[in-house]
Structures are given as structure tokens and as C-alpha cells.
Amino acid sequence: ENAVKSFLEAIVLKDNEKAVECWSKKYPEFFVALIVSTMQKSFEEAMQKDPESKLILQNPEVLKFGLEKNIQL
Fold first, then answer.
1. Model confidence at 18, in pLDDT bands (50, 70, 90)?
2. Domain containing residue 55
């Protein structure tokens, strides 16, 4: 659960290094890199479609709070 939250937070904050670290070493590096880049691109495209979401991203503390409170796994 914490790894998933950390991964999503890293994607939203564009911290690809942290996103990669959230994955188990049993997965090949190329696979993890592909997943991270695909998720990053998908997230950026979603932000383009929803201008209000961009306001949240301007304040990382608000974003982190939202991720902590709203992600129910």
C-alpha cells in the first residue's frame, strides 16, 4: 500500500527516480522505466484536460495532503 502511494506521489511530483525506487528489483529495469514514463505521460495528458488540477500542482504540500487523504487502497 505505501509503495503504491509513494509511486503515485512521485509520478505527480515528477520525481522519476523515486518512482523507479518504488518498484521491486525483480522487475527488469526496462519494464519499470516504461511503466514510469507511461504513467508520467498519462498524468501530464490528464492535467492538460483539467485546468483546475494544475492549481493543485502549484503547491506540493496541498498535493501531498490530498494524496495522503484520498488514496484508499
1. very high
2. 2-70
